[in-house]
Specification:
The complex is a heterodimer of chains A (905) and B (232). With 905 residues, chain A is an alpha+beta fold. Chain A contains 31 helices and 21 strands. In chain A, the strands form 3 sheets. In chain A, strands 12, 13, 14, 15, 16, 17, 18, 19, 20 and 21 form a 10-stranded mixed sheet that branches. In chain A, strands 3-4-8-5-7-6 form a 6-stranded mixed barrel. A two-stranded antiparallel sheet of chain A has the order 2-9. Chain A is elongated. Chain B has 232 residues and is an alpha/beta fold. Chain B has one domain: Rossmann fold, CATH 3.40.50.300. Helices cover 32% and strands 28% of the residues of chain B. A 6-stranded mixed sheet of chain B has the order 6-7-8-3-9-10, sandwiched between helices. Chain B has a 4-stranded antiparallel sheet with strand order 2-1-4-5. In chain B, strand 1 and strand 2 form a beta hairpin. Classes of the chains: A alpha+beta (905), B alpha/beta (232). Chains A and B meet through helix 17, helix 27 and helix 31 of A and helix 1, helix 2, helix 3, helix 4 and helix 5 of B.
């Protein structure tokens, strides 16, 4: 048969059928489009944000091979000269980078990155250019940065936000520094212009140094080696600089940043894929429904000469077309979600990794193609089994329908049993007695269909634990995701076996407790077979996801609450303006430190924080006044004994590291932490691992006194102030101190100050925001699973119309039939919910201990929100039972007379 | 002495709406059947045999007419009484057997009694007696898919008898059987009629039941065209 004829047949046979049963088909398309829409929207948001992040990273590093820093201090200018003298070094560019506040007349302002560099030395590393003005006016080229005083180029996003153009005036503040600059032009969206999402000001190095009053050195020196000279170059740098400076390959930093974002991207993409995955059950249900209701037509088609391959094609195409149409309808659906998702995702990326500023979504043709293929592929996969089953419909069913109940058992007779002599006229007669041989029942069960499914399910579940602990591949927990997939499949495959166990209850006991309809329901479910695994699989998946996320969110929140109250203790926090964004490069001014040290009624815990890179991981070393801190709180330890850790820190023997730092670098208790601060070598034992959920969560803590003694650095990066009294008194004192500091120092230093109560509240809000995206995905999964359950039950009724009418004919009342259907739904829902709950608990452990740890470096204290589960699960059960209504209506659509009428044809 | 008929039908009419057309399944038939009769309904496909059986079985409602079976005015029954009627007054044997595939032979036979609320043990004993009588004692725990046609039909007969209904309705019970098994089924129905006093109404287009039947009603195009006693 030619493809054209096959397509025409598809139109006659399938498309017209779908048109006739429009609402049924539309319901599935709506469900699939929701799943496809969410999937596409998440991909849009994630790829746009991640692309922006990667562009920013590449823009900042350019073609630089290495970066030299001096943790705790600046890199002096003579180092640049020494680097340039090395033959293997092609160029070395000094850089100052600080986040400042930029303001225009009229009050509009923005936090932007001010980058000061030497335009000549930096040119080979990072291309950048300014835009040509539309009216043809001469736009200054980059040399103007060096020749004209107090000038900057603005990134395009900043220019748009503040309405800047060539000649605009801009006021820039940082700490006690303030200057007005003239904008020479707007950077093109390429090279350095893409850094920080375009929220950047580019200045000459001297201009930046003058603004900051920092002439001794620069934040870092980035450079490139001559072609092929990387290994030799790194060795030369180490010889030249010794241990006083930190040298890092920029490729390592890029890889580390990329893998973190990739892990986040994978997390979201996999979760969004679940919405598509659950939609697959919907397609399966519809195709199964159609395959049952059209069985006679298929038999007629076969009797007229259609091949079984054609039948397969017709029903498989249903799945493919449903997928394509679902995707097409999903695109406008995704537009509804895309903007909000983009804001949420880019906000999270900015919060957790690096700034991205995205105004418009971007989706490559590959993403579009991938989403179509994926949606259609998933739908085709769902239609595979029903299509396959229809290939076996014999043409004889065209003349004799399948209502006899005969012909569907194995053609072999069962093993013979002993005959019993009797007197009735209708004895079997003739057969003499002989021995009965029966295989043990248990052995038969193992090799039966249900036994095979259970064995397969258990095998998959057995693989979950070892897979979940396999290490990530390039930072992506591939084995973890495989473990999750096996987990869902494994539990779903246990469903037929679980139902079989339930149906093995003594019929007499069941009859006594719940009546004959319940007995009939159990009989029906006992023989339901593998199809039930797919049907209940949707419910298992939805309940498991819900349970796992409820546990994960509750665990996270509980842990963060404990962390916030123990570790983020303090009534007033203060630090230099934008200190966090600037890696605490500048300490608190001396007069502020003096004032705080002399506060009469307060306990001030000072800390010194030094940004650095360790084994490719950006982190911070923090010296804190441990004695005072312990009076008001402490650390939430994950590993190690708190008391002995504190003793080791106080004596200068040890440091504690955050869980994030430990997971990212592999440093464990007992390992040595070695680094250089202010050119002085540091070597400590790791004596504890604590939980830290700050954005820059990779932190190493030591005692502030030890740090001072080892480095001579007596400055403060910030301080926490503690008051005594009732809660209200404390709040008032903190507020008064804040006002006092503003009055004394506000006009000069622009300190960042926040009340402890507000900070703790803000932290919890940030974590709630991070999980907002996953909540939406969960609701989608529940909705689609509910629709799937409804269609499943309807299919089961349709398949058994003859039996249901026979029941009526032999005396079953409508109520008994309804109760039978309700019991079937109740058992399926019960088994599905229990399996889903168990699956959800296992999934929550994997999410918390494995995937989350590998993706973000965090784990939580395990906590189950029984109240939330207790409230939600009955609702899920009620919704599933509500799904029986269409099935019950269908059961009573025809009168039992159809049993006779069919025979009469 | 005039014996009250066990089935009394007057002007039974059933019109089906097929698309835009009305088709008369039954065009207004009137007849009476005495208790203990064995009546064969004869006629070609579309003559109205199955329609009449469906009305007698309480599976369908007429467009017009009156029907009394064993004292029940069938068409004035509410839903609850109709269910009682199906359980206690009639037992139906179908051409395609219509055994429930997930129940064993014994369970299929017990089903109507259990639905009616009868206790389990007496029901099981009664089922075993009937099945033994029908030669099915070796197949008690087999599923319908494991039975031959003859065995399945005998199981269906036992099911129809479990609640001791006075009237047995059989719709082409030999239609899916070979000659030997078909003959056996007719003999069973004949024995039920002769020795157990059941009134049997059997639809067929063959002559297989002529030897045991006491009366023949011939239908054509929804009307009775012939009504004759076959045995004195």
């Amino acid at each position: 048969m030619s493809p054209a004829v096959a397509v025409r047949l598809y139109g006659w046979f399938s498309v017209r059928y779908a048109r006739r049963h429009f609402w049924r088909t539309a319901a599935v398309i709506v469900g699939l489009s929701l799943g496809a829409g969410v999937f596409v929207a998440v991909r849009l948001a994630v790829t746009t944000s991640v692309r922006s992040f990667e562009q920013s990273m590449d823009a900042v590093t350019g073609s630089a091979d290495f970066v030299v820093t001096r943790p705790g201090g600046t890199v002096p200018h003579d180092v640049i000269r020494d680097l340039l003298s090395l033959p293997v070094v092609k160029t070395a560019s000094p850089v100052i980078a600080v986040t400042v506040k930029a303001e225009i007349p009229g009050g509009r302002s923005a936090a932007v990155r001010l980058v000061g560099l030497d335009p000549v030395l930096d040119r080979p590393l990072r291309p950048w250019a300014s835009r040509t003005a539309g009216d043809g006016t001469d736009v200054r080229n980059w040399t103007a940065l060096m020749t004209e005083r107090d000038t900057v180029f603005a990134g395009s996003a900043l220019a748009r936000r503040l309405g800047l153009g060539a000649g605009s005036r801009l006021s820039v503040r940082y700490m006690d520094h303030h200057k007005d600059f003239t904008v020479l032009g707007v950077l093109k969206d390429e090279g350095l212009g893409l850094a920080e999402g375009g929220m950047i000001l580019l200045a000459d190095l001297a201009t930046a140094q003058e603004f900051l009053g920092s002439f001794e050195g620069v934040d870092r020196v980035e450079g490139a080696f001559r072609h092929g000279g990387e290994e030799e170059g790194l060795r030369a740098l180490e010889r030249l600089l010794g241990a006083r400076y930190a040298v890092q390959r920029l490729e390592e930093r890029k890889k580390s940043g990329r893998s973190m974002v990739a892990a986040y991207e994978q997390n979201l993409s996999v979760l969004s894929f679940v919405s598509l995955f659950v939609g697959m059950f919907l397609v399966y249900s519809l195709t199964a429904f159609n395959s049952v209701s059209r069985r006679r037509e298929v038999a007629v088609l076969r009797s007229l000469g259609a091949s079984s391959r054609l039948v397969f094609f017709l029903f498989l195409m249903d799945g493919v077309l449903l997928g394509i149409v679902g995707w097409a309808v999903g695109i406008p659906v995704s537009a509804l979600f895309a903007r909000d998702l983009l804001r949420a995702v880019s906000g999270t990326v900015t919060l957790l990794f690096a700034r991205v500023d995205v105004e418009t979504v971007s989706l490559s043709p590959w993403d579009v193609a991938a989403s179509v293929v994926l949606t259609a592929g998933v739908a085709a996969l769902a239609a595979l089994q029903p299509a396959r089953s229809l290939m076996d419909v014999p043409p004889t069913e065209a003349i004799r329908p399948r209502s006899t109940g005969l012909g569907h058992a194995p053609t072999k007779r069962p093993w013979p049993t002993k005959t019993i002599r009797h007197d009735g006229p209708f004895s079997a007669g003739g057969a003499g007695p002989f021995e009965a041989h029966r295989l043990p029942k248990r052995l038969l069960e193992v090799f039966s269909g249900t036994g095979r499914l259970t064995a397969l399910g258990l095998t998959l579940l057995g693989l979950v634990w070892p897979l979940s602990w396999a290490p990530p591949i390039h930072g992506i927990p591939v084995a973890g995701y495989a473990a999750v997939f096996f987990l869902f499949c494994g539990f779903s495959l246990l469903a037929p076996g679980a139902l079989k166990k339930v149906s093995a209850l003594s019929p007499d006991s069941v009859r006594l407790a719940a009546g004959e309809p319940c007995v009939l329901a159990l009989k029906n479910l006992d023989k339901a077979g593998s199809r039930i695994a797919v049907s209940i699989g949707a419910l298992v998946t939805a309940v498991a996801l819900f349970t796992a996320l409820v546990v994960m969110i509750a665990s996270f929140r509980k842990t963060v609450e404990a962390w916030v109250h123990q570790t983020v203790s303090g009534d007033l926090f203060l630090r230099p303006m934008l200190a966090d964004l600037n890696g605490y490069r500048d300490p608190l001014p001396d007069e502020v430190v003096r004032y705080l040290s002399e506060l009469p009624d307060a306990d001030v815990v000072a800390y010194r924080r030094i940004a650095m890179t360790y084994a490719g991981v950006e982190c911070a070393l923090e010296g804190i006044d441990l004695d005072r801190l312990r009076r008001h709180g402490g650390f939430l330890f994950r590993r190690g004994d708190a008391e002995s850790a504190y003793r080791a820190m106080a004596s200068g023997e040890g440091v504690i590291v955050s869980e994030v730092f430990s997971n990212r670098t592999g440093l464990r208790i007992g390992d040595r932490f070695r680094t250089t601060v202010h050119g002085r070598p540091m070597d400590f034992a790791v004596v504890g691992i604590y939980r830290d959920y700050r954005t820059q969560g990779a932190v190493i803590y030591m005692d502030a006194g030890v740090l001072r003694d080892r480095t001579g650095d007596r400055s403060w990066s910030g301080a926490r102030v503690f008051f005594s009294g009732s809660e209200d008194q404390i709040a008032q004192k903190a507020q008064r101190l804040r006002e006092e500091l503003l009055t004394r120092f506000g006009s000069r230093y622009h300190l960042d100050m926040i009340l402890g109560r507000e900070l703790r509240q803000d932290i919890l809000e940030v974590f709630d925001q991070t999980f907002a995206v996953t909540t939406v995905l969960l609701l989608m999964a529940l909705l689609v699973a509910g629709l799937g359950m409804m269609t499943t039950l309807t299919v089961m009724v349709l398949e058994r119309m003859v039996q249901l009418n026979t029941l009526k004919a032999v005396g079953a009342s409508s109520g008994q039939i309804r109760r039978m259907l309700l019991w079937e739904a109740a058992f399926m829902t019960g088994v599905g919910s229990l399996l889903g709950l168990a699956c959800g608990f296992v999934l929550s452990v994997i999410l918390i201990e494995v995937i989350n740890a590998q993706s973000f470096g965090w784990t939580f204290l395990y906590h189950v929100a029984w109240d939330q589960l207790g409230a939600a699960l009955p609702l899920i059960a009620a919704a599933s039972l509500g799904a029986t209504v269409p099935a019950q209506r269908l059961a009573f659509r025809h009168s039992p007379a159809m049993l006779l009428r069919e025979e009469a044809r | 002495m005039d014996i009250s008929p066990i089935i009394d039908a007057e002007n039974l009419t059933r019109i089906y709406r097929l698309g835009a057309a009305d088709v008369a399944g039954l065009g207004g038939v009137t007849f009476r059947i005495a208790p203990g009769a064995f009546v064969v309904l004869k006629g070609n496909s579309g003559s109205g045999k199955s329609t009449l059986l469906a009305l007698l079985g309480g599976l369908d409602r007429p467009t017009q007419g009156r029907l009394c079976v064993a004292g029940f005015d069938v068409f004035s029954l509410n839903e609850k009484d109709l269910v009682r009627y199906r359980r206690r007054v009639v037992g139906i044997v179908f051409q395609s057997f219509n055994l429930l595939p997930t129940l064993t032979v014994l369970e299929n036979v017990c089903l109507p009694a259990l639905l009616a609320g009868f206790p389990v043990e007496p029901t099981r004993e009664k089922a075993l007696r009937w099945l033994e009588w029908l030669g099915m004692q070796d197949r008690l725990h087999h599923l319908p898919g494991e039975l031959s046609g003859g065995e399945a039909q005998r199981t269906a007969i036992a099911r129809a008898l479990i609640n001791e209904p006075p009237v047995i309705l059989a719709d082409e019970p030999t239609g899916n059987l070979d000659t030997r098994n078909g003959q056996r089924v007719v003999e069973i129905l004949g024995t039920l009629n002769r020795d157990y006093g059941r009134t049997v109404v059997m639809a067929t287009h063959a002559t297989v039941a002529d030897a045991v039947a006491t009366r023949q009603l011939c239908l054509r195009d929804g009307l009775i065209v012939d009504d004759q006693c076959l045995q004195p």
